[in-house]
């Protein structure tokens, strides 16, 4: 087998395979671009055009992995969830980017 392919396989084993999903990568990339303010659930839903079940389950999975944090914010009289990417989330996203570019 070609040396580059063997290297890619070895590097892939070090990645978090749970992160390699289009919705999860899009969520993290969006939160990364938004910076420290993060985004409310409804903003993510509208911007990413995801159904509630898909968005919610992926947000919870990313939170369990330590890649994002949920916090409650107040907008007027309403309380809602807001999400921010963590340093671990930024590191994992960057590792995925580096590996994907090699492919």
Keyword list:
103 residues; Arc Repressor Mutant, subunit A; single chain; alpha+beta
Explain how this protein is built.
By secondary structure, the chain is an alpha+beta fold. The protein has one domain (3-102): Orthogonal Bundle (Arc Repressor Mutant, subunit A), CATH 1.10.10.10. 60% of the residues lie in helices and 17% in strands. The chain has five helices and three strands, in the order H-H-E-H-H-E-E-H. The chain has helices spanning 3-14, 22-34, 41-48, 52-64, 87-102, and strands spanning 39-40, 68-75, 78-85. It has a three-stranded antiparallel β-sheet. A hairpin with a 2-residue loop joins strand 2 and strand 3 (78-85). It is elongated, with a radius of gyration of 16 Å. The chain starts with a helix and ends with a helix. The model has no long low-confidence stretch (mean pLDDT 87).
Describe the structure concisely for a colleague:
The protein has helices spanning about 5-15, 20-35, 40-50, 50-65, 85-100, and strands at about 40, 70-75, 80-85.
Helix content: 55-70%
Low-confidence stretches: none
SSE succession: HHEHHEEH
CATH homologous superfamily?
Winged helix-like DNA-binding domain superfamily/Winged helix DNA-binding domain
Q: State the total count of DSSP E strands.
A: 3
Tally the helices: what do you get? Answer: 5
Give the strand order of the largest sheet, numbering strands 1, 2, ... along the chain: 1-3-2
**CATH class call:** Mainly Alpha
Tell the overall outline. Answer: elongated
What is the CATH T-level topology? Arc Repressor Mutant, subunit A
- Structural class based on helices, strands and sheet pairing: alpha+beta
How many structural domains does the protein architecture include? Answer: 1
Question: What is the end-to-end distance?
Answer: 15 Å
The main β sheet shows up as:
3 strands, antiparallel
Q: Evaluate the radius of gyration.
A: 16 Å
Query: What CATH architecture do you see?
Result: Orthogonal Bundle
User: What is the averaged pLDDT score?
Assistant: 87
Strand content: 15-25%
């Amino acid at each position: 087998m070609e040396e580059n392919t063997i290297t890619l396989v070895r590097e892939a084993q070090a990645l978090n395979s749970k992160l390699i999903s289009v919705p999860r990568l899009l969520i993290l990339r969006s939160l990364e671009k938004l910076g420290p303010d993060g985004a409310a659930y409804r903003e993510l839903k509208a911007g990413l055009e995801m159904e509630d079940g898909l968005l919610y389950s992926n947000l919870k999975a990313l939170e369990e992995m330590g890649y994002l944090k949920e916090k409650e914010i107040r907008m007027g009289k309403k309380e809602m969830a807001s999400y921010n990417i963590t340093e671990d989330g930024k590191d994992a996203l960057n590792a995925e980017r580096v590996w994907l570019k090699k492919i």
